[in-house]
Design goal:
The chain is about 30% helix and about 20% strand. The chain is α+β, with helices and mostly antiparallel strands and about 550 residues long.
Amino acid sequence: MNTPIPPRSLRRSRVAPLALLTGAALVLAGCSGSAGAGSANTDAAEAGEPVHGGTLRVAVGSDAGCIDPQQVGNNDSIYSSRQLVDSLTDQDPETGEIVPWLAEGWEINEDATEFTFTLQEGATFSNGDPVDAEAVAANLDRGVELGARASLITSYLEGYSGTEIIDERTFTVTFDEPSAQFLQATSTHTLGILHPDSAAASDDERCTGVIGSGPFVLENYSPNEGSTFTAREDYDWGSSVWENTGAPYVDGIEFSIVPESGVRAGSLQSGQVDLIGNIAPQDAAQLTGVGAQLLDRTNPGIAMGLRLNHDHEFLSDPLVREAITRGIDREEIVDVTQVEGTPTATSVLSSTTPGYTDVSEALEGDDETVESLLAEAGFEQDSEGYWKRDGKRLSFEILWFNVAASNSATVELIQQQLAGHGIEVTLQEGQVADWQNKLNEGDYDANLSNITRADPDILRSEYHTDLKNQSRLEASELDELLDAQASEGDEEARNEIVADAQRTIVENYRLVPVYDLTTVLAAGENVHGVHFDSGSRIHLSNTWIED
């Protein structure tokens, strides 16, 4: 835990960035690339014919202590586990259209309670067993039983009543209530299909290794150290949006855990690795200066911001939550801590999410607004400039995790900005493997995080009080809106409900949106064909290494 920053004495002056962060911003000013909503994958077509062979070496910043794709939620862990499994469908990252993958076709009944899929022929797990209807049913049946690490799969399968096997390649998934979101959910890593033996194993056993039907096979996994994969020569059933639907071009992949962003950048520059995640702003210009490729895509889903625990003494007060929200200078945070072009948050959903609505007016503020809100909430300023109520200082702790290179700088600047408004903030770095347990148990005040999904139903996963409800909300009309959008099959009508849900969440200050998380990776100049999926995670079967 760190020491809180005292409030500034001049109440209407702009918060001065920390000296360390100012240096980062100056370096960033020379960066030639910019982050954006579109995919900026390495362009294999311009590079010529793919070259077969070699090992792709990837360095990421953290590890969740688990390799099971159905139980991991942070990007660094998804990058590796995603290579093991295929999904029933895929989602075109450019259009959002759901397209075939393991399933060659599907039918949905009128009220979206029954989904009948037909599997393509020939797909097998890495041990040679077929990917059949029984395997899919085993995954779905087991998915609803997974524990705390699998909070996303619980929401994707909310209302699941079972899977009827029609024949080896055909099955019907049934829900008790309409589930308009389920088809998109089948495109995610979270519903990636495991071998039935892996699906049946205990949660902890699955974290040490699983068998999938994906283009790569796990050879070794060491928590907090890395993992190694070998390519499947017999793979021939890739997603219909991939350029290469057959065997991978590289022979294998080595993932290593390198927590320091500067060390990752140095490893890429020296040729020790070929691809790195979590690019820090201060490293961007240096990397492009030596010919590295910056690959960026703005993540859909819930924007990066502060998840708030509504059981907290002060954060349960809507006026306090609004004061915190309006007291944060999003433009400054983006300018100082993020790679150039990262959008500021304008809603609970990021701007690349289907159904997004701009509600930025509820996020704007200044000193006078913050002071007025806190005074209305019954606070008074003491001689040091802090706000107090009933003798207690307005204070809370931000729990953060080192899963993105900019997280430390972001929480430090939020701390400084709110100190300037007389709100005391302390910071606590958590261990990535403990993340879900702390949130599920409510063992936090505020948490810097985002949740990626290219479907607005992520709002229901996060904020419905009958689901994980890690923000500790009380049941309200928001639940009704979230249920309504989940059962609405008409896209236009569903988007109207989603817009109402966004306004309800933001205007009641259920969270503090800060910026739209933008995934930025860097690849060596000889690496081609890195592919972002619709959730800004990577597929590597099309990747190849020149020379």
